[in-house]
Fold this protein.
Amino acid sequence: MDYSTLNRLKDKLEQATSAAQVASISAEIEKEERRLREAEEREERQRLALISGVESLRSNSPSLPLRQQVEGFIERGKVIIKEEYHHITEPGLAMPDYISGPKSDQWFSEIHIFNSRYLKCHPLHDQIEKVCKVHNRSYSAHDDMMGYLKALASDDAFWEEKDKKENKSFMRSRKTIAQFLTEDIERCEDFLENPNDETVGIQLYVEITGRYDRIIDGFGNGLYQYYAEQHFYDPKISGESLIHNLTVLMNRLITYQAEKYPPINERYAEGVPRNMGKKVFIVHGHDNEAKQEMARTLMKGGFEPIILHEQPDSGRTIIEKIERFSDVCYAVVLYTECDRGRDKYLPVDQERNRARQNVVFEHGYLIGKLGRDHVSALVKGDVETPGDISGVVYTPMDAGGAWKIQLATNMQDVGLSVDMNKFCR
């Protein structure tokens, strides 16, 4: 952890000569200490996740990167040796040392699944599979597996190649769960209407079980040839068993889709024009460059930017115009350095940059109208953001354009179709 900034601020505090300087530097120290505490807490959570396997394959939360999962297996293997190692000391009883216990059994099961899903192209795949199947709780099998995992974790060439493939796939099409659900339900329907080609059905079964097992709780319950403890779906399935399993899974996908991803525009009245699905409302201040860059980005992605002052007045007041033209699928709020302000008890030299008051007002209005998940707030420069809008995430509008990826991701997460290549170029 880098404490150099904190130490520098403390030195400055000792040299401060006025009450205003003391108050300003003290505020910076408090901010830096909070940042360091948060960083330490993140590191501790990551360390515990690796040891305890919280982010393992059987978790319902989003998984760690694959290489970190392998490192997690190694850390858990070390713990298992300490807790479940058995050494026979009875006189006259010749029996080799062994490792036995629930943690060891779960460890081998998860590695078996991980190996089947992600390591089919790795040279160690067959060795890992063999040890998983015939380990018989022997110490030597555990030791062999630890050696394979360490070799796997240090195989930089394999992970670099895997990262390249994932990045290419991400840039081609980063589909949301909602989009996958729609496509997979249609694929299930197509196969079940004409289940003659079992090869297609088996491939569909493997893809669906691998995709949703960690997302939908109890996804495999009631299926033929499903092993709940290992979360293992036997791919060697055919005939009526295959049709039964796919029918059950399709119905679960339909139910999950209805619960988690209702139609995006159902909150609006039927009289709202259908083309609102491409309209994005832009809330802005005096920074014309930020406004125009946002509008160009949205247009590249096939969306229609709605900028209030460009819309006809037709005798309406400002609030009436906002009500009229905010029937949109999404909204973007730009916090830019337009005004300056401070707490009335602070000295003048502690004034900070703030967004225009209309920006804060329209931000809250759009959250109430569209829902918090349909509004993204971006910050350009050093701007003080409102302190009483809880749960709002502010994305820095950086010069490098990383904000475009975050905005596109946010829009995809609510079901909007966004072409990353067009949106982020």
Notes: The first strand starts at residue 85 and ends at 86. The longest helix spans residues 19-52. The chain has a mean pLDDT of 82.
